Amino acid sequence: MNKGKAIFKVWRQAPFGAKLGFLTIVIYLLAAFFAPWVAPFGERETVGDVWEDFGGETLLGTDHIGRDMFTRLLYGARNTISIAFLITVLSFTIGIITGFFAAVVGGWVDNLLGRIVDILMAIPILIFALMILTVVGTSIPALVAVIALLDSTRVFRLSRALAMDIEVMDYVEVAKIRGEKLWWIMRSEILPNALAPLVAEFGLRFCFVFLFISALSFLGLGIQPPAADWGSMVRENGGAITFGIMTPMIPAAAIAILTIGVNLVVDWFLHKASGLKDVE
Q: What are the Cα distances from residue 16, in Å, to 4, 10, 28, 44?
């Protein structure tokens, strides 16, 4: 009961931008989860002519081969958001564990992991991903593994920097003298004190991964058709712009709105974690 009151109090004190961002995220998540029940047609079902107007049975018109855009938009949310979330969780798991481990152990382990990360980060991530995916293929497991590995380098740098600051604190030294094991120190002493910036970074990295998947799909190396994906929906319907049809703007707007919503929540969370008060 007290926890519920605390959550309600935080919600009530949140600025309008954060509330708007949170509601946007909730709407997207509900759309993704309930897509099979809400969508009026099947994900791959052709229901009309090419690029039909809005309204009628096709609320947002049809795409380049006559599939319902509203249905494709819902399934695109399901596919893109779930894969982006999975990649972000995996990249944070890899990055946090290796970053904390490098900071606590130090020495040649820290140098080795640091040099590997420097090499990976020296290559532009989009070019690197395109090169690897061209070789290993564009299956969902390959897409998840490649992007998670590349994105974990950024998480490693942040985690290591945070752990380096926390690792020299007295309570960590006491834990070492007490004989606590390395994993216990990382999990019980370093992680709780690094959680606020890591949570904020999680939101930012999710946005990056979400946009990155859309970019790869737009280039033809992301989520493959006939599966719905917002990036590939923009690419497939790009020719409609020539005829003054705004169909490709629908998935583009969906990408932009979710990105803005997540950033509004992350900005508010960072402000709360910093302890700064709003200026009247």
A: 20, 12, 18, 38
